[in-house]
Fold this protein.
Amino acid sequence: MSTPPTPPALPTITGTPPPPISILLINPNSTPHMTTACLTSLAATLPLSVTVTGFTAPAPAPSAIEGHLDGVLSAAECIRALLPHLHDAGDDSRPKYDAFLVACFSAHPLIAALREEVAGPVVGIMEAALYAARMLGGRLGVVATAGRSVVMHEDAIRAYGLAGYSVGAAGTGMGVLELETLGRGEVEGRMCDAAERLVGRGADCVCLGCAGMVGMRERVGERVGDGVQVVEGVGVGVQFLVGLVREGLRTGKGGVYASAGEGRRRRGQEWV
């Protein structure tokens, strides 16, 4: 027998050290420990050249986002408090951050509002998780908190154009703050049960549907098994933003995300 020919070497390229990137992680509720938990969850995978700064919505923003009104109230408090932090002191032409992550698992109104105010890319953790799940599997599902979140998540999945790839959401019966106040074993047990229900419907990718669920991906992954991917939107969202910034991509300002600030100035409005 003849010896098979050695395959030709494939071309390769090695990267160079990237420039630093600064990302603002925005927790639109007023519960600081959620911001801290999100930042802590990034430690193992954050590139050395990337700095993530945490912002927590000031009171009287809601302590948790569990409905449409919570979303509207938190967006208003956040945008007013954020504006002084968006540029270097004394120079409105120099943005302080390269990109922005809205750390609420919803189609939060702050996402679109920020896209009107900043040039850097803005991503919400729900859209990051959903798009990652769509790329990784054939059917996705969302582990939700209480009952209303199930409806809101499924509405958002349709709005993002992903209903045809979704098995829906499964609730855990917990409020957002109960993810912290209930015992860890009970919280993980309820999340795992919900994830298994989604897998039973055909999901091969399960999204953790709340920023308060950071740090629980591994336990849910153990329950559903190696054939199912568990996606957590904070980590994925940061990595998406890093890629967008390194590709030189920004928020498009030629359409619906045209500058809201310029509109205010044209009509003589000096307040937000």
Remarks:
- The chain has a mean pLDDT of 94.
